[in-house]
Amino acid sequence: MASLASLLLGDGRLPVGAYTYSAGLEPAVAAGLTRDRIPALLRARLHTTAVTEAAAAVLALRAAGQDPADYGPVQHALTARTPAAPQREASAALGRGVHRLARRLAPDHPAVTALAALRPRPLRPVALGALGAVLKVSEEELAHAVVYDELQTIASAALKLLPGDPLDSVAWILAAEPDAARAVTAALAVPGPDRLPARTAPLTEQWALEHARRERRLFLA
Amino acid sequence: MPDNDTTPAPQPNPHFHEPLNQPRALRLGVAGPVGTGKSSILATLCRELAGELSMAVVTNDIYTDEDARFLRSAGVLPTERIRAVETGACPHTAIRDDVSANLDAVEDLEEAYGPLDLVLIESGGDNLTATFSPALADAQLFCIDVAGGGDVARKGGPGITGADLLIINKTDLAPYVEVDVAAMVADAEAARGGLPVLALSRKDPASVAELADWVRALLARHRAGSHVPTDPGPMAPHSHS
Questions:
Q1: What is the radius of gyration, based on Cα positions, of chain B?
Q2: Which residues of B touch A17 (CB under 8 A)?
């Protein structure tokens, strides 16, 4: 099951509401980002937020394996490292879709029931850790899925926001491979929630704050 | 309108809904092409039923909350009971392919104002093929109008043929657009194999009363457990990823 499951985790067609999210691309475009700069944005995400989120997902997966599962520390650490409120809200909204899927697949799994107790609602990486436990994926598969999803989310959103040849976006993702591999390695090396890297990106946070007040958006963040 | 209890009930799919501890609100979808009067029907239903039922509304727009604002300004429901989902993508994505954002909105309303009797979910205006997934709506109205042309009902599509109720709206405009309402209703009935068709105008109180009665009867079936959500069928194959 695990090999199909790891592919499912990285599949944008998974019905968990991810189509509402551009991983920061729409706010960046509104701030003037042009199509030729998308590869640079991908690298920037891989050096910053993607590491933090992948590491948080891995930590949540580890927490899911404990008895009892306690996501509190990783949720708390990730919340503190996501300083822009719209980004936290987007993460919680996306986490809700992941949580719903986990509940449907395994309502009585201890990793899933522990998620229900979290308030505020679990951020997406935390919910993904619980789903990863249900799907029995490895830490490395989960970290890869989170990093890959970040890239594919931006590349797919680009088709709506900065239209061009869709085949270009495949090449962008492949070109980001070395940075993606480093992000996965960095995420796996985090020993615990207190050491979760605070790879903040002030400009994307500023853009996220501006985006939240904007009308006629295609994506929530 | 024919009674749709007599139509053969498809087998319920146990995966469509979360296990329920208590009867939850009836979730009624309103779909149909752009400009056919979906928001107006929601306002009419609120006006007719909010006095006797605890209601809430979710609207879907691509990138505005225009429909929610319209309903709030109509004053037919407390404004906080009207939530907008900005679908961001093609409206059918949010009501069929991936209903997460709409389920979030419905569940938030139920949590804040529950127990509710009826949640109305308005689709963003799309085309003739966009219908609600039973994962989101227990039942659905599909709305077309006389101004869209007398032949629309004949053209079919899953909403026209399979929605729980087909509404042919704006019948008061028929003389101005040279459409024969009776013929349009007959076309629709022929396409629907016994499922009900309602010729509606908000200026015709009898038709409005008929609509409200249909919703009351549906709610009674929902509460009795005899209403089985059905899927009008998929849309024409195409994809947005």
A1: 17
A2: 98, 100-101, 104
A149, A124 contact by CB (below 8 A): no
Query: Helices in A106-176 by DSSP H: which ranges?
Result: 110-116, 124-135, 139-161, 166-175
Q: Which of B18, B64, B240 sits opposite A216 (nearest CB)?
A: B64
Can you give the residue range of the structural domain that contains B124?
25-223
CA distances from A3 to A7, A97, A140, A183, B13 (A): 7, 22, 12, 21, 28
CATH class of A35-194: mainly alpha
**B76 Cβ contact list (under 8 Å, min separation 6):** B43, B46, B47, B50
CA angle A47, A91, A3 (to 5 degrees): 75
Q: How far apart are CA B149 and CA A134, in angstroms?
A: 52
B99: CATH = 3.40.50.300
pLDDT band at B129 (very low <50, low <70, confident <90, very high): confident
Q: What is the ipTM of this complex?
A: 0.89
CA distance B49 to B120: 11
Minimal C-alpha gap between A3 and chain B (Å): 23
**What are the residue ranges spanned by the domains of chain A?**
35-194
Q: Which residue of chain A comes nearest to B16, CA vs CA?
A: A104
Is B96 part of a structural domain of the chain?
Answer: yes
* Closest alpha carbon within chain B to A21: B88
Using one digit for the tens of pLDDT, what is the confidence trace for B154-202? 888 899 999 999 999 999 999 999 999 999 999 999 999 899 999 999 9
Do the domain assignments include residue B88?
A: yes
